């Protein structure tokens, strides 16, 4: 493809929807066919999409950021959070985002969780599932120094959040109600980037990592950097992904 693919979602009608550069696009896997649905951030040629996920009603949420000069170094406040509806119209929820990242919804679908990485915070919004409207933004967890930068995020069937910590070499489990960290799983690489549950019954966690910006010495110390890891035995399961309704 001609631009980076930053997120992939299942589609109700089959195949996938993806975020590609600054486009929402439809992907037909067998035909190797990609069709642009719509462009965002047309006035910002240096921007690209980052993380994205579909809400329980089938809307595709995804946010943008400026291209990085080097990992986590970029022009600030260039990103926005968007929502693609089933009729292919797009709603912009807000702008002034640094690095739009992890996102998910509470089990009762009344809260939307969101990470803008350089705020070092996991935020919550009130969520209206009928309309997709969000409001009443607040921080529910501020990362500690050794946890570094919050990146991708997912929720488990107990309603607890899992956050991959970029430069922190770990995934942390948070209670969004109390704002307490419940668990830390360390990995053999520093640049952990995202996490999701998978496997037959969603009891396995998959964690991605990055190797961008690492020199030879760093890579010799962390030869698995850039790999995908599977964590088993967590004792909790994840929530299956929702398909895009359009």
From TrEMBL:
| Binding-site list for a divalent metal cation | 151
Free-text comment on the cofactor: Binds 1 divalent metal cation per subunit.
Q: Enumerate the Pfam families for this protein.
A: SGL (PF08450)
> Chief location of this protein?
cytoplasm
Q: Where in the cell is it found?
A: Cytoplasm
A GO cellular component annotation here is: cytoplasm
Identify which top EC class this enzyme belongs to. Answer: hydrolase
| Residues of the SMP-30/Gluconolactonase/LRE-like region domain | 3-211
Q: Where is the active site?
A: 151 (proton donor/acceptor)
- State the needed cofactors, names only: Zn(2+); Mn(2+); Mg(2+); Ca(2+)
A GO BP term, please? L-ascorbic acid biosynthetic process
Which reactions appear under catalytic activity for this entry?
D-glucono-1,5-lactone + H2O = D-gluconate + H(+)
Q: Which InterPro entries match?
A: 6-blade_b-propeller_TolB-like, Regucalcin, SGL, SMP-30
Q: Which UniProt keywords apply?
A: Calcium, Cytoplasm, Hydrolase, Metal-binding, Zinc
The terms under GO molecular function for this entry are: calcium ion binding; enzyme regulator activity; gluconolactonase activity
Zinc: is it a keyword of this entry? yes
Name the Enzyme Commission number(s) assigned to this protein.
3.1.1.17
Q: Of which family is this protein a member?
A: Belongs to the SMP-30/CGR1 family.
Q: What is this protein called?
A: Regucalcin
Its lineage opens with: Eukaryota, Metazoa, Chordata, Craniata, Vertebrata
Supply the gene name.
Answer: Rgn_0
